[in-house]
Amino acid sequence: MLEEKTVTTKAADHIVKKPVSIKSLKSGPMTSTGRRKTAVVTIRLVDGSGRIRVNGRDFSDYFTTISMQNKVLKPLDMVHAVKSYDIFAKAQGGGLNGQAGALSLALARALNNIDGELRPILKKNGLLTRDPRRRERNKPGRAGARKRFQFSKR
Fold it and tell me: What is the CA radius of gyration of the chain?
């Protein structure tokens, strides 16, 4: 199942078209893990028609906002593989936003493992980098991580 598609990239002042081939999974399902904040997502990628299930629920029911759905689909959209694979994800910990970021990273890693030629496209868009930002700890004697109590002069 090799589909020829073209990716348009802007190089200097002209547009360059590069052919991108979507490879099928010959050796069975591909598994990958992504993390963001305290969320951990494990995915199983199989050849299919583009169906995405997260914790047994449909992708659009689980991630209700358009921005989260776009964040999850970005790796597939960059390589024009939205309708090429079925994705079964198990999300644990964190909130929905963290889980969306973790799922995006897991998808990018899986696509990179399937076809190494996709790496420059994924890397250029920052999809293979784990976001290291975490919640800052609460400091002792304070209301929050940075918040201070109201100053009283007298």
Answer: 19
Report the length, in residues, of the chain.
154
- Confidence (pLDDT) at 150: 86
Looking at the DSSP bridge assignments, the partners of residue 85 are 47
Render the burial of 121-137: b for 16+ CB within 10 Å, e for the rest: bbeeeebbeeeeeeeee
Q: State the pTM of this model.
A: 0.80
Give the pLDDT of residue 75.
94
Provide the residue ranges of all domains of the chain, joining segments of one domain with +. 25-124
Pairwise CA distance, residues 110 & 153, whole Å: 58
pLDDT of 79-94, one tens digit each? 999 998 999 999 999 9
**Residue range 25-124, CATH number:** 3.30.230.10
Q: In 3D, which of 90, 79, 89, 86 has the Cα closest to residue 122?
A: 79
In sequence order, what DSSP letters do the residues of 65-128 get, joined into one string?
A: SHHHHHHHHHHHHHTT-TTTEEEEEEEESS-HHHHHHHHHHHHHHHHHHH-GGGHHHHHHTT-S
